[in-house]
Amino acid sequence: MLRFLGLRLARALLTLVLVVSFAFVVLRMSGDPALLIMSADAPPEAVAAFRRAWGLDDPLWVQYFRYFTAIFQGDLGNSMRDGRSAISLVAERIPATLALTLPALAIKLGVGIPAGIYAALHRNSFADRAVMLLAVAGFTVPSFVLGLLLVLLFAVQLGWLPSGGQDSWRHAILPVITMGLGGAAVLARFTRSAMLEVLGQPYMRTALAKGVPWQMAVRRHALPNAAIPTVTIIGFMIGSLLAGAVVVESVFSWPGVGRLLVVAVANRDLAVVQCILLLVAATMITANLVVDLLYGALDPRLRVTARGEA
After folding, report:
1. pLDDT score recorded for residue 304
2. What is the sign of the dihedral through the CA atoms of 189, 194, 200 and 204?
3. How many CB atoms lie within 10 A of CB 116?
4. Which residues pair with 78 in a beta bridge?
5. Is the pLDDT of residue 145 over 50?
6. Helix segments in 171-256, DSSP class H
7. Mean pLDDT of all residues in 270-291
8. Where do the domains of the chain lie, and which CATH numbers do they carry?
9. Which of 39, 93, 222, 307 is the most exposed place for a label (fewest CB within 10 A)?
């Protein structure tokens, strides 16, 4: 088991290094931050001094080595726009992002999973078709389109809710619904598919043939086994909470991490972009690691495999 955990942690660390390295190279190859941050009529001497002050005139491998050395010392750099620590800038925006993503995650779980289970237990019924129709619609409509439609209806036409900002809890309703509905649609589809696959297994027919009540067979056999593939999707959703907020925060002018990332990319604010990408990658990797551990709790066969690997 210890070897199992060690391999997962090593893989997670390698993935994190690769993600950060890729972002490091791409950001520096995509444009010169000095030309974007300095004014268009800035003298060449000032631009050269800016590059020298931020180490942009050093070879790429020198910048890469210096960046990773600073990371291991807990220093993720400073913003090129105002000189503040990148960590502090990102930390200021995290509460605003969590104010959207956590309620949205609750909607995904509270709507998607029960809807998928109900549709599977009433296969080919009117309710099943209705749930799947809504799920396909929610899955295929991009979040920015759904957000604009909600703004047009509830903010412009009806005037019930504000279209953007963060002045009160009412400003969070539309972005939370926008983020929650798409995820709920995905969960409903996957949960229904997982339940239907389990309901068709021989052990379900055997349990019913032995006289086990339908409700008990579903509760004891179908739901635990269907939870395994569903946990994968839930883990991915939890891991992508910060990344998934980029579009929605931009549409609703919500001052969170996602909107900060968009502004930082546009300004080539390297330290801020790298800090956010590091945070997103670490969140997704941690969520995947937790999912791997949950597999062992849900399926005893995986625990046996893990002991064999150890």
Report:
1. 45
2. negative
3. 28
4. 85
5. yes
6. 173-199, 202-209, 214-217, 223-239, 245-251
7. 84
8. 32-75 (no CATH), 87-309 (1.10.3720.10)
9. 39
